[in-house]
Amino acid sequence: MAATSVFIVKESGGTYALNGPPHFSEWDGLQKDLQEARFTSVSSNGNLVAIGNNSEVNIYDARDGSSKAVIAKRMLGATFSPCGGYLIEWNNPSQSSDNFKIWSIGNGKDVKVVHAMKLSKQPDTQFSPDENLFARLSNNAIIFSKLPDFHKTDKKTPDTMKITKFSLSTAPHTPEQGPLFVLCYVPGAPGQPSFTRMFRYPNFDNAIASKTSFQADRVEMKWNKKGTAVLLITSTDVDNSGQSYYGKTMLHYLDIKGETAQVHTESDSAIIHCAEWSPSSTEFAIITGKMPQTRAVLLNSKCEVIFDMDILARNSIYFNPQGNILLLGGFGNLAHGRIEIWEVKKYRKLIATCTAPATTQLEWLSDGCHFVTATTAPRMQVGNEFTVWNYKGKEVHKWKAEKHLFGVVPLKPEPPMPFPDEDLDKFIKTLGNKPPPAKVEEQKRSSVYVPPSKRGIIGSGGSTPKGALTTTNPAQSQLTENEKKGRAIRKKLEAIEKIKQNIKDGQTVEKNQQEKLKTENELLEQLAALGV
């Protein structure tokens, strides 16, 4: 690449690339597109970038910015296959034309559609990492095609398995790098458990790892970078135990050796806010617990806690490409936008903090030393801007959009560039044994919503998670039954207040949220009757 830490900026005035620190000048390697971009996609190996506007899709070599191909067609959205050999197009359903297409990119001289289908919803498809296989879910079975022939079925899972979701391992299946693994989710019938099983392709007769769950409305599958293990996040809309108003979440671990485990969190919490693999593939971080006091921990491949990052209000995890710096953020409903910067490889300590309110996007740049926070449309229609920070928590560049900013897309070549360890060592030495920065106000026990008519009657709320990964406050653990019920009711009132605010902001609320609004008066009466 002609420059380091290049990132693409998508705004209403066009799409262009900027050089990273220290200059932030426009990178002339990539031609500026003056039209508003409908989508921007980068191949996972970092070699190609596609920019689609209202009339065409331009494909560039991300290493030098040269044009590789132009598809004179408007697309709603498109993504690359792992090696960048194919572009997968998706458009809204149409009765007159195919809306799901796969384009062969090749050397850019003979770009053509090699597979097309007319579908009512976006299909569940995936390429193997080496692009030798294409898999798609059809009628609860996975159909595998050996490329380049997309139309011939090379392997199909048994119809009796009734698979509703699948995921392929992220490492190429070659004699040198090992086989391909397939994770399959099979929902259970009413009253019966659901199953998630791992198979070694093409053998679907014997599972090498399996997990069961009685509570799973949705599942999320996250493989590590080497494709040797996967985190399975199962969640339900309703927590039947009554511990959480927002449903229940469970985290499971499976690996290609057949090892499985359930990752235990706080005993009184049914919420996992985030779980992310380190680029090293041997560690992962999770955030769990009840807001506003959540605990972040780093675990090894045995699911043992190896580093505890304390209890604070946060809900997002971001590893840098080199895996030695970890960001913990509090975004979305945590309006303070506090970012904690941790060194997790050598020193394992908090090294800096910064604050980026109204952040809707956070991305690491390829150098692993800088990251970008952005306030973007359409989620935020005003105040669109991006800020570049270094790992020391210092702001190094800020840019405000004249109208709308739609996002930033860093170009991340593989393998990632080396991290300047000497600079990090010197910075940490300057910190010495100084205590971590003072906690912001939002980390304290927050006050709950109190209706004007009830002020002076209702006490304050707040809770401290208990269990395996936390330190319990004895004073809070000795609550009466009425105090516990009161706490649960206050949490429901807080949720109702948020729904009201969303309505004031012009947002559309779901039917179940509308039903919650109807329960406000009843909850207030219950709370008053408890006298707490």
Characterize the structure shown:
The chain has helices spanning 421-431, 474-477, 481-504, 511-517, 520-530; strands spanning 7-11, 14-18, 39-42, 48-52, 57-61, 67-71, 77-80, 86-90, 100-104, 112-117, 125-127, 133-138, 141-146, 155-156, 165-168, 181-186, 194-200, 209-213, 218-223, 229-236, 248-255, 260-263, 272-277, 283-288, 294-300, 305-312, 316-319, 325-329, 338-343, 349-355, 361-364, 370-375, 385-390, 395-400, 405-410. With 532 residues, the protein is mainly beta. Among the domains are: 138-273, no CATH class; 452-530, no CATH class. A four-stranded antiparallel sheet has the order 3-4-5-6, with no helix packed on it. Helix 3 packs antiparallel against helix 5 (520-530). The longest helix is centred in the C-terminal third of the chain and has 24 residues, at 481-504. The termini are far apart. Residues 438-450 and 454-477 have low confidence and may be disordered.
Strand order of the largest sheet: 3-4-5-6
Strand tally: 35
- The level of helicity is 10-25%
DSSP helical segment count? 5
Low-confidence stretches: 438-450, 454-477
pLDDT average, as an integer?
Answer: 85
Beta-strand residue percentage: 35-45%
Distance between the termini: 63 Å
- Given the helix and strand composition, which structural class is it? mainly beta
The value of Rg in angstroms is: 25 Å
Major sheet description: 4 strands, antiparallel
Approximate shape: globular
